[in-house]
């Protein structure tokens, strides 16, 4: 009887403590986007739930906020309305916009110990180029990527090409593309050689061509662009020529979202898209495929891409510290490995690739290493102050050249003039 009473008392005390802890838990709201196919949203929810289960003194409301563009718009609107999320994954290129709007705080304020600083130095430097400015860290890499080239091995074999060898240069991409482009008896193309999307955020894939030709489109301070550099003009002329001169790519604007489906259905033998689509391609391609670094001109090169964690103003120190702890947990090796396997995004810390989980995954799916290995040639994604305006101008210039309403030189010269008019005040 005495033992029973004692156990009841212990249970009651535990329930009281649990109730008190729940009532006094730190509440966090976390916005996240999903811009590619696959099980990304489900994986984020699972990881968040796992963290909360391990940390009952923290409640996290993980809100799927739509596309990257939707997410940054919602985060800005909520902040202006006095109800910001404590944490959000937003494109790395939006860092200058968020700083300019005075909406985010530096992670350095909450990463003060030597151990914290060592952790911060543990990310791939290529990803940190879009995460730091003026000596401060505003973004923590999470769902980061680079574009890569995917190819249909069956189509290569049918065209008399080595199915295990991708084009390594611009010239080879044209040469392969000509062999891969197929027409029916009426002269209609049934399979294009290559597909490089030019809708959505065309500047990103074009930036791969620019870097490969030796030009960086914006400086690290986010206040100067090089849109009209002759090397950029040459890169844009090559992109246009793929359709008009070499006839290995469909003419006009090519849709980003429809590109993986076109690849699966045999409408194109090669495609450029994000490594964030890797799991989607693995799960849905009805043929054996390969993955390669982007082909070079004067050098290898690709832009980094994808989203960072940002810490928003308006939270208490307790909330911000809890948010930072969550970021450290979710980017830790085992969680990061789970995320990479679910999505194809590049695990942003070398230590993740050393886990047994990732080693086994890589052994069965070596294509996942391509984007990681390409990081040694990668450069920061185009990012400036008033980034959406500036990239909008640049995207319009690309569209004008692709659709033939302006020459590449005319389009990029006008884009540079318009970008200068916006960015002069930030120099």
UniProtKB/TrEMBL annotation:
Gene Ontology CC: one annotated term? periplasmic space
Signal peptide limits: 1-23
**Keywords, ordered alphabetically:** Periplasm, Signal
Xref: Pfam families: SBP_bac_8 (PF13416)
Q: Tell me where in or outside the cell this protein is found.
A: Periplasm
**What CDD domains does the annotation carry?**
PBP2_UgpB (cd14748)
Protein family (similarity comment): Belongs to the bacterial solute-binding protein 1 family.
Write the protein's name. Carbohydrate ABC transporter substrate-binding protein (CUT1 family)
Q: What is the native source organism of this protein? A: Roseibium hamelinense
């Amino acid at each position: 009887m005495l033992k029973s009473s004692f156990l009841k008392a212990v249970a009651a005390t535990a329930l009281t403590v649990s109730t008190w802890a729940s009532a006094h838990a730190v509440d966090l709201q976390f916005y996240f986007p999903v811009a590619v196919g696959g099980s990304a949203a489900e994986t984020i929810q699972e990881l968040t739930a796992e963290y909360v289960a391990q940390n009952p003194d923290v409640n996290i409301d993980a809100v799927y906020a739509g596309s990257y563009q939707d997410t940054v718009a919602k985060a800005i609107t909520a902040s202006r309305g006095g109800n910001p999320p404590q944490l959000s994954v937003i494109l790395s290129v939006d860092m200058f916009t968020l700083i300019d709007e005075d909406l985010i705080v530096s992670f350095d304020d909450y990463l003060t110990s030597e151990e914290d600083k060592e952790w911060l130095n543990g990310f791939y430097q290529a990803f940190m180029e879009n995460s730091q400015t003026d000596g401060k860290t505003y973004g923590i890499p999470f769902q980061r990527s680079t574009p890569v080239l995917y190819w249909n091995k069956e189509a290569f074999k049918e065209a008399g090409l080595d199915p295990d060898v991708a084009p390594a240069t611009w010239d080879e991409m044209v040469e392969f593309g000509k062999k891969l482009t197929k027409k029916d008896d009426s002269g209609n193309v049934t399979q294009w050689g290559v597909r490089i999307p030019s809708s959505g955020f065309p500047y990103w894939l074009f930036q791969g061509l620019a870097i490969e030709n030796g030009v960086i489109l914006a400086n690290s301070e986010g206040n100067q662009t090089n849109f009209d550099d002759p090397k950029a003009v040459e890169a844009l002329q090559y992109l246009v020529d793929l359709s008009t001169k070499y006839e290995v790519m469909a003419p006009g604007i090519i849709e980003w979202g429809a590109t993986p489906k076109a690849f699966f259905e045999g409408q194109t033998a090669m495609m450029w898209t994000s490594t964030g689509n890797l799991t989607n391609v693995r799960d849905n391609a009805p043929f054996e495929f390969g993955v390669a670094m982007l082909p070079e001109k004067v050098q290898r090169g690709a832009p980094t891409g994808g989203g960072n964690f940002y810490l928003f103003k308006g939270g208490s120190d307790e909330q911000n510290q809890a948010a930072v702890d969550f970021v450290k947990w979710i980017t830790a090796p085992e969680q990061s490995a789970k995320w990479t396997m679910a999505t194809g995004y590049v695990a942003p810390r070398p230590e993740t690739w050393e886990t047994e989980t990732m080693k086994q995954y890589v052994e069965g799916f070596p294509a996942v290493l391509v984007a990681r290995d390409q990081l040694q040639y990668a450069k920061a994604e185009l990012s400036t102050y008033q980034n959406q305006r500036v990239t909008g101008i640049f995207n319009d210039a690309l569209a004008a050249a692709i659709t033939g309403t302006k020459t590449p030189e005319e389009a990029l010269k006008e884009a540079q003039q318009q970008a200068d008019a916006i960015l002069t005040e930030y120099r």
